[in-house]
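Weekly structure sync, notes
Attendees: PL (lead), two postdocs, one rotation student
Agenda item 3: pending single-chain targets
PL asked that the sequence for the first pending target be pasted directly into the notes so everyone works from the same version. It is reproduced below exactly as submitted, 226 residues in total.
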Amino acid sequence: MKSDLYPLFLDLHDARCLVAGLGDVGCRKLRSLLEAGTGTVLTRDIAEPSAEAAALLASPHVRHARRACTEEDVLGCRLVFAATGDRAENARIAALCRTHGILCNCVDAPEAGDFLVPALARQGELMLALSTGGASPALARRWRRELEDWLAPRVRMARLMGRIRPCVLALSSDSRQNGKLFRALAESPLQHWLQDGDMEACRDFLAQSLPPELHARIPEFLHDLA
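Predicted structure, written out during the meeting:
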């Protein structure tokens, strides 16, 4: 169980990644990479692809070869997932990655790799990553579902702040003043009013809180959030 991990969200749009092994776990890894908009995903497996794997391999972002993973495959990858179902093979791939300074997730022996994949709770634009440090992926999946329920009513507040923030910054006001405004909005009852559909209270509060230059945009900020 690892307790000193460094959490981060990666932009993989221009990256090349590799998934070795296309069983159930490998398919989950491949699907998550495609959902993240990964530029290119190399896949390697000696077995005939299952129907699930074949559907994923149809993506134009996937480059598949029916053979074992080689050192050349690993070179230039941002992330590698060793998910072959063969513990010795996964360890070999992880060792190759370590030699070349490439981050590897070893699905059956986390200690042999460099990172764990967290359970991801997602609602709209909001994401929360949860890890048990490898202690219990099953618990992480259960808590992910609970976190998705917790996130659902907060999506509207995040969208509202995402609309307001760039408009405030565009006014080029003092950064300390902006920070004070953003904290006031975040700590206000706006979230509860949005959950209750009380748009009048939202409009009144924003009219009192936002700079006068943005008052005409309040209907735009609140559009479709009811």
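Discussion points:
- The CA atoms of residues 9 and 129 lie 9 Å apart.
- Strands lie at 16-20, 40-44, 62-65, 79-82, 103-106, 119-123, 126-130.
Action: rotation student to compare against the earlier draft before next sync.
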